[in-house]
Write a structure and sequence with these properties.
Layout: H1 2-25, E1 45-46, E2 56-59, E3 61-66, E4 69-80, E5 83-84, E6 89-92, E7 95-97, E8 101-103, E9 107-119, E10 124-137, E11 142-154, E12 161-172, E13 178-180
Parallel strand pairs: 1-8, 2-11
Antiparallel strand pairs: 2-8, 3-4, 4-5, 4-9, 6-7, 9-10, 11-12, 12-13
């Protein structure tokens, strides 16, 4: 009987703690960056010199849960045409800053960005140095720099290594046409 009451006393606080954590963390977002994909809510950083119908480039953001832990993964612009954006860049493994949307002059631009993955437990990481050179951004168009990830675990038990592969692309938001990277000829060459 005494053993049962001890279990009940331990289970109740554990259940309350888990409920509190899951409720408090359900809307986790990194710093003050927008967590959900809603481009109409993003305020672009203006580099267009007030150009009418300037193209706007949005950087992807998403929130999800893994094993009950809320994550926020996003891309942050750090450089345009080789120039660092104000307060942008990586200061440490857990401190990355940048812009979630840019308003540019029409024409060709080179962009650099960081991929950030943080969670409600206060851990995470980032990889910077992604980029696209000489991409044509047309007047009046909206674009998204998007990403996909693949997670792999390799190695013997007890010495596993987790690897995240990150791929980026830039798409026109209206036509969904991928403008970076440009499609390549995938036909195989055969020799006799």
């Amino acid at each position: 009987m005494r053993h049962t009451s001890l279990l009940l006393r331990l289970k109740l606080p554990a259940v309350l703690l888990m409920a509190g954590l899951s409720a408090a963390c359900s809307s986790y977002q990194y710093k003050d960056y927008q967590g959900d994909w809603a481009p109409e809510s993003m305020t672009p950083y203006d580099l267009s010199n007030n150009t009418p119908d300037a193209p706007v480039v949005y950087f992807a953001t998403t929130r999800y849960r893994a094993l009950g832990v809320p994550f926020h993964r996003l891309l942050l612009a750090t450089h345009v045409d080789g120039q660092q954006l104000p307060d942008a860049g990586r200061r440490s493994i857990l401190d990355v800053s940048g812009k979630q949307a840019l308003r540019l002059t029409p024409g060709k631009h080179s962009l650099s960005w960081c991929w950030v993955s943080m969670n409600a437990l206060g851990t995470g990481g980032a990889k910077c140095g992604f980029g696209a050179k000489d991409v044509e951004f047309r007047s009046g168009q909206r674009y998204v720099v998007d990403f996909s990830t693949r997670e792999d675990i390799s190695g013997p038990p007890g010495r596993e290594v987790s690897t995240i592969t990150i791929n980026s692309e830039i798409r026109d938001l209206n036509t969904h046409e991928v403008i970076y990277p440009l499609p390549t000829n995938t036909s195989e060459k055969t020799s006799n």
